[in-house]
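Chain A, query sequence.
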Amino acid sequence: MALASCCALLIPVATALLARISHKRSDQRNVFQSNRHETQVFRSAGVPPAFLRCVETEKLPARRRRYNTSCAAPTFAIIGESFGLRPVAARDGNDQDQRGRIRSEVTLVSLLASVLDKDGRPALGLTVDQFEVYEEGVKQKIEVLEPETQQPLDLALMIDSSLSETKELEFEEDAASRFIEKLVRPADRLAVYEFADAVTQLAPFSSNVPSLQAALRRIAPGDGTALYDAIFLGSQALTKNPAGRRRVIVLVTDAGETTSRADFETARRAALRADALLYTIVVRAVKTEGGRNTAGEHALETIADSTGGATYFPDTIAQLGDMFDLIDRELRTQYRMAYYPNPRPPAGTFRTLEVRVKCECKVRSRKAYYSGGRLD
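Chain A, predicted structure.
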């Protein structure tokens, strides 16, 4: 009888607690939110607090930043298992000494390089003695060189669906569909996004080509263009995937920017921290400078160059497929190299990089990496 009385008293209390927990969970919002089409959407207006914290953190001077796993990738140490090497993650805040100074490990830094000959074709067959890597101006010893790397891809394909792009959407969807079919291999994963005033994930990362192609047919025109938000959120999505894979963002846009909460530097740093290559195809409906988004074009070229990617300007919409083919070719002919930085870099800093090659060639690679670590 006493047991029954206790249970009777506890049931209402437990019910109230469960209701409160359920209500609290329903109020929580992630950067991407599900909608009725089982896609995920980020709104530039009324953005989640977590995203705003990330954006505001990026705008602080480096010495005042506090990074955490929700805003930054823990390390740029990415190296394939085929060499018998494992990535060494930067230590977290528990590895600080009692005076609060950052302690870091020497981490194998991996980077990709695209090398083109004087005719713009991939320069194949280069050897390790033809490459030089410099960090902060100091020459480094290359420990690993993998020509025509087979490292799997994680690629975020982001299509501008703003009203200014409406006329080109059908061509973009068709060219993107062929790109997916040609690029994606069983070990690769691709996600499809559209962006206007919102950044919407239409298909999560997968190697299911028909599903990815079907997602392209769900692109719908929208108001505004959250260009920098797209780069920022695409970079964030890539950092949540496993290490040991190449990270790529392919952006198809007219380079307009109207509604982002993130700014240029926030987007650029997010791409660098994610170790993501940015490839941009700029579709220009108007060829004259007076009708083009020249400021946006320059911004995209700068971000792409800093990541080791590239920007393409098709003369006509019919050339869009050719631009996708150039990206596919480059991703399949990249060199991957790795080194142990000497001297050991301080944690929590961006380090400048330069790759040089001894041939009549042009080389593209990322211009900086984030050394990892946390500052409390």
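The chain is about 30% helix and 25% strand. The two ends are 55 Å apart (CA to CA).
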